[in-house]
Amino acid sequence: MKAFKATFDAAFEEDTRGLARAYSPFIGEEVNRFVHIHQGPEDLVAKVKLLRKLSHKVGTCFQRCVGWDALNTLYIVTGKIAEREGRKEYFNRFLEYLKYVQRRDLALAGAMTDVKGVRTLRPSEQPNRDAYVHVVEERADGIVVRGAKANITGVAVVDEVVVMPTRAMTEKDAEYAVSFAIPLDTPGVKVVVGRQLNDARRLEGGEIDGLPYAFNHEGLLILDDVFVPWERVFLYKDWRWASQFVEIFSNYHRQGYAGCKSGLGDVIIGASYGLARRLGIADKPHVQEKLTEMAFLNEAMYSAGLAASWEARKLLRDGGWWVNPMYANITKHLVARFPYEISRLAHDIAGGLLGTAPSEADFRNPELRPLLEKYLQGVPEFPAEERLRLLRLLENTSLSVAYLIESVHGAGSPQAQRISIQRIYDLQRAEAIASRLAGLKAEAPADAKAEPHRPAEAER
């Protein structure tokens, strides 16, 4: 809850107020940025910067980003349906929902990942029909849905859940092509919170072993014949649009990882440097080299996210600002790799005590404490407790769901990014560029773009 609370506090605290507030043209007043619809590249840059800054405050995931990305995805997809097909009911419903959310500063969970069952089968082919969320009944006043969404960040503490399709669909999958929003306390909604690495320590009391005491959670969201009124339904059996949901949402979320993961990287780099100082090795060349490499990897992730933000494009006639899909995928692919290397270097600097340090209970024991203070101390000017605190902070951040597992699987696995990169990078155009320089009489590319990139599906 402390991490979650930070997203609300940020709009009022001096060092984050400028990043955490934005003007909403939909209600004519300032709103918390976590419920804001991006109005240009500057907003997307502010998103990345805010996430990095918030990571410094809590040392973990703060759990509102998925719902925020879901709002922006819905704005674009429902807007595109209105523009391309002239059907404005989805867009009008969404705008009313958006105003409702913004005026109340509601916290949203975004629910995209289905449990998926047999991964080689489409939703309509599953032996368990509920392996993907689907419509089981249509009523005059709404629909009834059934299924489950997995690994939903922050789901136990949000006000509402925004559900989206998780993959491209065919006509046979139409009942699975559904998007809607429901309050968390809607009848039939069940949440099963998952376990996390090191989570028990935070419940043991004390003030060292569980550092940082702000932490995140994910859960299994079960929808057991849940009724959704029509005014909360934003896609219904329009299977051709399901892939747009996935592409637009996933790229928003991949871009955002540049902020939160670089922010956590700052915490890990800072803890590593602090430990090196307490051991008297901070100025040694091999340690300086490791710290420099960690900084390079961290800033590379961040830079890619900023590039994805500044190179944004408008997908609707009236707004709908989306990230650059190539650079968003590059961002997330770096994030899938670099946190593990940053953690490895941090563990190298910290030493074996990172995984074997005495418990806080032993350190508080009056008989043991003088001995531990004597034998765990490095440079005399730093008390042993400082070393223990930094060790626990480093352990619980660098060996965590928020920094490692989420970096690989959040917003799609590494293979999903590679598929996107392959689709966008235009090898034929690159060959034409090379062929002209090689004197093979190839025609130069006709357009003025510097990058040999194809448009993503959402841009076509």
UniProtKB/TrEMBL annotation:
Residues 242-439 form the HpaB/PvcC/4-BUDH C-terminal domain. One of its GO terms (molecular function) is oxidoreductase activity, acting on the CH-CH group of donors. This is 4-hydroxybutyryl-CoA dehydratase. Pfam families: HpaB, HpaB_N. InterPro entries: Acyl-CoA_Oxase/DH_mid-dom_sf, AcylCo_DH-like_C, AcylCoA_DH/oxidase_NM_dom_sf, HpaB/PvcC/4-BUDH, HpaB/PvcC/4-BUDH_C, HpaB/PvcC/4-BUDH_N. Keywords: FAD, Flavoprotein, Oxidoreductase. Residues 2-235 form the HpaB/PvcC/4-BUDH N-terminal domain. Signal peptide: none annotated.
